[in-house]
Amino acid sequence: MGQDMWSRLKRLNRSMGNETAKHLVVIKPIIALAFLIAIATPFLIIFSPFIVAVAIILSSIFITSAFQAAKRRIGNSLFKIYSMLFPNSAKTYTEKYENERGLQLKNNCTDPNKDPDLRINFGPDDPRILMNALLDEPNIENLNMSGCRIGDAGIIQLKRLLENNTIKTLNLSCNSITDIGMKNLCTSLKDTTELETLILSNNKITDAGIESIANLLRTNTKLKILDVSGNEIGDDGALALINVVKEHASISSFNLKNNFKMTLKSNLEFMSLLANKEFTDIYLNAEAITEHVSNTTILNNHNLVNLSISGGFKNKEQAYLGSLIGKNPNLARLSLSSTNIGRGMQLLANDLKINKSLTSLYISFNPMDNIKTQMLANALAENTTLKELTAHSCNISAIGASYFEKAIKNNHTIEDLSLEYNDFNSGLFFRKNKTCQALLQAVKENNLYRKEKDIANKLTLKI
Prior knowledge:
Number of strands: 12
CATH class of the domain at 138-277: Alpha Beta
CATH superfamily of the domain at 138-277: Ribonuclease Inhibitor
Shape: globular
Largest sheet: 7 strands, parallel
Radius of gyration: 29 Å
Helix content: 40-55%
Strand content: 5-15%
Order of helices and strands: HHHHEHHEHEHEHEHEHEHHEHEHEHEHE
Number of helices: 17
CATH topology of the domain at 138-277: Leucine-rich repeat, LRR (right-handed beta-alpha superhelix)
């Protein structure tokens, strides 16, 4: 026992030299900064007290960050010492931590009801811990790893898990996956027969990576939803993928938007695909909305349920905005956030008054003056099907909010109304509280009316 302990201490002594060097990497800049401050302080005091204040703030931020980094490294060193002296106890502690952390990550990534926006932060070791935890679960159907920073290396670690035939929904968006990772991913998925949803948005996929996806689609006959938006796809990759999707029988949702290397050539081919294949979900850039697209792609598609438009409308495209929802009998969700609606608001409001299918409308980040706000509020007052309206960050003033107060009192079907991050306090500071109180009172009266009429769903207001 004594000899064993002595050998551990000798190994520890050799490793301490390396650990000390690591700490000096952090400590040296602190010493240098302190020396610089000591020399510069008399000159700063003479020239400007303001400069002194700024220097002190910046120095404190730098020193705090440096000490936090040193604390982490020292903590790792202490655990390394503990591991050398008591390897069995350290192993038990590590296994216990990884089991608990793995369970937490697994529950977060496999729960289909989990909001991806509430995803917990991943540390550098978490992808490996998650992979080990997932391997113990043989029947995963929904795997959401959006924003987990797994990269191409994480795709290799996912290989064993992806080769099973139970996964139906796979979300790998925002993971910095390149063409190399895409090739490995598609190889792992080639024998998966149950996959229905594949989300790969906001990665680093180029035309070479799209070739791997196209080959996967030729063997996978069940895929319904494919999202490759926000990547680096050009004309060659887009056209290759469009040609495969055109012949694919089951795909009902195909998202190619925000691939800014695509030119007019591939965008026109994409429009042709949308016109000839009745998707349930359509994603378009605003500049692609023309009279032809409005009539063929949207109005005549009776399977269309979800329409999402991004980018800014120009004056010409705004003229087609009203026809987007006026005559389509099944459209349920419409997203127009950050599209510069402009004069199209009048057309949109007119259609909202008579529309009988739309349940969700998202128009955030569209600046609205009092006139446009009144149009929208009046339409809401007459609409009888809308359940969700999101209009945050639209510069709605206190006067504009008063129009919503009247709409809330008259509409008894809306369930979620979001007016966050608007300018209710325009002019005087006390107006914000007064406006908010009036809106909340209108909601209270609305819910009391619903209770009296035995209407189950209540109205929730976010301001």
